[in-house]
Amino acid sequence: MTIPTSRQITSVELMSPRAVAKKYHERALGMVIPRAFGSKSKRKPNKSKKSLILEDYVLLHIGKTGGTSIGRFLRKFRKDGQDIKIKKVGHRITLQRVLEESPSCKVGFVIREPSTRFVSGFNSRLRSGRPAHHHTWSTDEAVAFSYFPTANDLAEALVTDDERMRSAAEFAMQAIGHLRRGYAFHLGGVAPLKEAADRIYCVAELEHLNDDVFRLLEPAGLSREQIAEAFQTEHQAPSKGPALSEKAIDNLKTFWRQEYRIYDYCRKHLVRR
């Protein structure tokens, strides 16, 4: 059985992206596919349902907000024998789950301006996570990127009279992991944040992480000097594609209305409390 090339996928112009994905999904699962699509399209099993062993302080990992750098920092000191009282959890762990499974722990997380998180998340998955990681595309992601080669193309299609392209854009927003799991997924909304305010010990901003990291990692029991010496932000791969147009940004604000509402609430009420 032949696995479709990107040319074959993009040539199916009269099919919806969901139909394209469905058509090729069973062919691709468990089979070696062309390099552009990664080695396998089958997603890793969801391990997030395992019981959480939580520390006194927990850091949520919202995609493209510096979590890899923070995780590397914490692992370094644990490897050196330090008793670090902060645990960084994975991408699929939500605020609600942490609060339910560990009623006494405090929670921290990092936020980032939504449009820059969107571009970073799109480009990261376009590169299969490289250089920091290497997680190959799912079949759905392969279809999404065949429709939208740049983040700007995707954002401009989110609000349009072209029903087919709008459907493709909505499909892509669910297919691409970093875009599917944003603030609404991790934090639930403004109301849950208000209810959990006394459990949130720190909200940092990626744009100011070199300064905010001292508050974020203060419960680790390390000195400011230790944090400053050891913490390094991840290498930022150069952005590919055009910058977001004014139309693209406006579309994002419309489509991601809840993402922006949560982000604005965090900045106004939770950052630097």
UniProtKB/TrEMBL annotation:
Pfam families tied to this protein: Sulfotransfer_2
Gene Ontology annotations for the cellular component aspect, listed alphabetically: membrane
Highest taxon of the lineage: Bacteria
A single GO molecular function term of this UniProt record: sulfotransferase activity
Cross-referenced InterPro entries: P-loop_NTPase, Sulfotransferase
Name under which the protein is recorded: Sulfotransferase family 2 domain-containing protein
Species name: Microbaculum marinisediminis
